[in-house]
Amino acid sequence: MYMNKSLKNNVAIVTGASSGIGYSTALALSRAGLRVAVGARRIDRLKELESQIIDRNSDSEVFIQRLDVSNKSDCNSFVDAVIKEWGKVDILVNNAGLMPLSYFKNGKVDEWDRMIDVNIKGVLYCTSAVIPYMLNEKSGHVVNISSVAGRIVFAGGSVYCATKHAIAAFSEGLRKELSPQYNIRVTCIEPGAVETELLQSITDESMSGFIQATKKMETLQSEDIVNAVLYAIQTPSHVNVNEILIRPTAQER
After folding, report:
1. pLDDT tens readout for residues 87-130
2. Nearest one of 242, 239, 232 to 173, comparing CA atoms
3. How far apart are the first and last CA of the chain?
4. Residues acting as catalytic residues
5. Does the domain spanning 11-246 belong to CATH 3.40.50.300?
6. Which residues are 144's β-sheet partners?
7. What is the Cβ-side half-sphere exposure of residue 117, based on CA atoms within 13 angstroms?
């Protein structure tokens, strides 16, 4: 890992920070000396995160605000508040996401809409909110937490996979547009099965076999994905880590 690049006093925004990968990422970035702004819908969990960060290091700087990434105004006001607080945004970790897997024939339209709103629109809205500031500085790093589902498609995951394929495509398009000319790096991280709350969002009873198989597997931990985030952002500025696909050793597909 590149440890020679200091991230101290860089400003990072982490979405979906109330649990799992987002929560762990915020803790790790704070430990690395960054100022961390965290957003999620569950403000009580963000307050817990803030307390944990401060308890570990009273000099740590953390900003919390309720954030629904599917609401463009929320995303804009969140980023504006961070700029007002610290004057810049160096890193955006688009982590917020949903995975209510279901067989398409079961017609769970509300769940499809919510996935599209959070998994796609949320990434677009948050990225759109930070890009003007990164363009002004000709520097920045956008890290999109996608999924192995952004590379493969499986029965019961058609809509979820579609949202994650969209993020893979968006990440590459963003890189081509912004990296060579504006020095804004883009990384798409694609985890396999991770021990998070995502399985709890599955309401389709016909997906029970998938849930049980995943629970039996030795899955990745949030910290495994955090290590990938740290690797990508700690590389020298001339290195653009575009994709990281990381699966549990036991995961076949």
Report:
1. 999 999 999 999 899 999 999 999 999 999 999 999 999 999 99
2. 242
3. 27
4. 160
5. no
6. 94, 188
7. 13
